[in-house]
Fold each of these.
Amino acid sequence: MGRRSKEKQAQGEMDVEEMAKEIVLSDDSIALEEEEEYVPPAPGEEIRLEDLEGVGRITAQKLRSAGYYTVTDIAFASAHELAVILGSEERAMAIIRAAQRLLNKGEEFITAKALFEKRKNLEYISTGVRSLDDLLEGGVEVGSLTELIGEFGAGKTQLCHQLAVMVQLPRERGGLGARALYIDTEGTFRPERVVQIARYRGLDPEKALENILYARAYNSDHQMLLVDEAKKYIEKYNIRLVIIDSLINHFRSEYPGRENLASRQQKLNRHISQLHRLAGLYNLAVVATNQVMAAPDIFFGNPLKPAGGNIVAHGFTYRVWLRKGKEGRRIARIIDSPKHAEKEVAFAITEDGVVDV
């Protein structure tokens, strides 16, 4: 081999060594950033992702890009979800533990009495109908998932429109002085209806419309994306009610047949988990409507049953069945609840909205 060839080979080896050094240095710089001395936030100071032990600037950017904006989001995430972003389930678990310690101040359990006292301060959104509020013992519960089930024309969408207005009322009138976020999967949201209900409730129709953030979901993936994106708006716009009308429409149309049932239910389960996390983390109410389907194996009694099977049945805190009654009335009945007795009440739908009979 000639002298020139040996020089080129040596130069090539040096270039490879330098590139390797640069990669190592680059990795070390990230590691140093993540391992810099941890300084806990001062009492009363706003807690950022960077305040978590083991989270530096780069990791915080990755987490925010994936939809984890707050320490609370991290505290209630699963290690499997974060491992996809961080590349290590062990590291993900360590960061989740750090977030939980920061929020819970080291306490993992509380007494049932403490929980009882906490629940005394639960907030409710009035439906605007005295009989429905009595049925729900105060209205739609904040921090929980409420499902409205029924055939077409039973009043599900009407009640959703009304709740989007009622949440805007001051607390002394049954609202929370807050805004609503409305995800429409069937194209049935009508701002004209909001105007009618707002006028009847003594609100400025223009302001009532401004206080409802609306999005149309065009498929199940888009629907789940909108729920993730909602986290960007909740605190900024003081949203205390999230409405999905209807929950299962896209899932039923995109996953037809028994052969797709398992895939559909797994995806639906993830969606309901999203909603639970949203309600718990941001202290808001989630209301979703659900369709019904015929049960051909039932020969006596009601041949209809809620769509979504056991996944939806176990996923929602409160389930209310709406149906048409005589003389234009509607009937609401609680069919599943951890605290309510199974009973039913009547209400009506008029030009002014949903009202008592």
Note: Confidence is low (pLDDT under 50) at residues 19-36.
Amino acid sequence: MNTLTAETSLKNHPVVSKDRWLTQRKALLAREKELSHLRDEIARERRALPWTRVAKDYTFDTPEGQRTLADLFEGRRQLVVQHFMFGPDWEQGCPSCSYMADHIAGMKVHLEHRDVTMLVVSRAPLAEIERFRARMGWQFKWVSAYESDFNYDFGVSFKPREWAEGKGEVYYNYSVRPFPAEEAPGVSVFYKDDAGEVFHTYSTYERGVEVMMGTYNLLDLTPKGRDEHNPVYTMDWVRHHDRYEPAPEAAKPAAGSCCHGSD
């Protein structure tokens, strides 16, 4: 839907009696319940997926020094990784990945109380990560896979030569397809058993990473929805949170009007 069509839809939107609205709302509620049950069913199927053992020894640069993948669990059994698009020669991290990461602060303490450690991994050198993290005011753990195959092995980084030879086609989201960059977003999940062995349990890419974007869930409740109109790159509206223009002020009453009824 383009901007003009969306504005027309809002201006000419149906307005009905409360009783009729309630009838249609209940019909939608039935559909929402179907979606909730389907989501629960898929979550059960996701948990039932077999695991694969992580045999390679991955090492990451962290503010505390080099750490292995097993170290990153920080004493918990489950690890959720945001693969953040921030290449070694980039000046700053991806705006859309930053939009994802903005949601971590509110989730972190709750995840930790459910035996989950959450962290972010990028291929940028640690010094660049720390510089950008300070600029954004983030407090979450963010480590560098600069000298590791981690991002390549989990399908979110593509070696320049391979990307060029494939003419921009890469193996991403479980298929070979065109991709416009050498870095991609993703979310991966790992489990560590009592023996210290690490298992890869799940990864999701493309729109699957919306699982981290709580803002989208709220926008989906509103009349304008996500209000995205670029068919090639829907998230072109997203900015780093310190790069937005000031938010529009609330509309003020027109001159001469008042907020109470006339005599």
Note: The first helix runs from residue 3 to 11.
